[in-house]
Write a structure and sequence with these properties.
By secondary structure, this protein is α/β, with parallel strands linked by helices. The chain has nine helices and five strands. The protein has two domains: 81 residues, Methyltransferase, Methionine Synthase (B12-binding Domains), Chain A, domain 1, CATH 1.10.1240.10; 123 residues, Cobalamin-binding domain (Rossmann fold), CATH 3.40.50.280. Bound molecules: CO-5-methoxybenzimidazolylcobamide.
């Protein structure tokens, strides 16, 4: 059996098969990161390319995303540690106007696996909800994800609102940002405290931001 079969099952939108194959790979001792990178993320990349090329459309993208989500649910216990005291609390979400959540969920899983307590607000989240949730949970970090060039301005607005809240409400919340259209330059430009290229990068960054 090969990781290729997981890739193929995502490409065929077969969530039952994805779950079955992942369980088999886990039983065989395959590394979780290999399953993620070479099976599921590689398939989502291909789906994106086909969408860009006009050979595949939104319903198919959604079905592939559902297959990946089903796989992530199986991997969750293997990514999440049993940690005692959390390394810090992160309020996580995809910014307003953006409904993509697979990468954000992956970041959340890896943060949990890295010992952080994660409060996941889901998708299409406005700046004030991020701030009030962070206040209520005494969070150290707000983590913003954006997949669309059209939702990047919402990220900028959220970072500005968090920065204002830090000043006016006497808070000390760090902001980290990520997602495919985001890069270090953009993070610097909008005044974020850090940029995570991918889920492991987000964990390393979160550790730095809480001073670990
Ligand atoms: Co959409 N979509 N989509 N989509 N979609 C993209 C993003 C797109 C690049 C496809 C394309 O054109 N090739 C394109 C955006 C173009 C752009 O703006 N530049 C696009 C578009 C246009 C759209 C719609 C507008 C399509 C339409 O309706 N005409 C629409 C928008 C809806 C909305 O949000 N308002 C739309 C809808 C959808 C679906 C609902 C069908 C579905 C989402 C389902 C879901 O998420 N539950 C979907 C999908 C699946 C995709 C692609 C194919 C896959 C995204 C994904 O999950 N990747 C995507 C093309 C692609 O990326 N290849 C595409 C896998 C995931 C693991 O990677 O999200 O990059 P990623 O996350 C990574 C890193 O970026 C990083 O870590 C993650 C793991 O390593 N990361 C962070 C992410 N957030 C982070 C935060 C951090 C740190 C790191 O710190 C806080």
């Amino acid at each position: 059996m090969a990781i290729q079969e997981i890739y193929d099952a995502v490409m065929e939108y077969d969530d039952t098969r994805v779950v079955e194959l992942i369980n088999q790979e886990l039983d065989a001792g395959t590394d979780v990161k290999t399953i993620l990178d070479e099976g599921m993320i590689a398939a989502m990349d291909m789906i994106g390319k086909q969408f860009s090329g006009g050979t595949l459309f939104v319903p198919e993208m959604l079905m592939a995303a559902e297959a990946v989500q089903a796989g992530l649910d199986v991997l969750r216990p293997h990514l999440v540690g049993t940690g005692t005291k959390p390394a810090g609390t992160v309020v996580l979400g995809t910014v307003r106007g953006d409904l993509h959540d697979i990468g954000k969920n992956l970041v959340g899983l890896m943060l949990e696996g890295g010992g952080f307590r994660v409060v996941d607000l889901g998708v299409d989240v406005d700046a004030e909800t991020f701030i009030t949730t962070a206040q209520e949970n005494e969070a150290d970090i707000i983590a913003l994800s954006s997949l669309l060039t059209t939702s990047m301005p919402e990220m900028e607005k959220a970072v500005a609102a968090i920065s204002e809240a830090n000043e006016n409400r006497n808070l000390n919340i760090k902001v980290m940002v990520g997602g495919p259209p985001i890069n270090q330059n953009y993070a610097d430009k909008i005044g974020a405290h850090g940029y995570g290229l991918d889920a492991p990068g987000a964990v390393a960054l979160a550790r730095t931001l809480v001073g670990d």
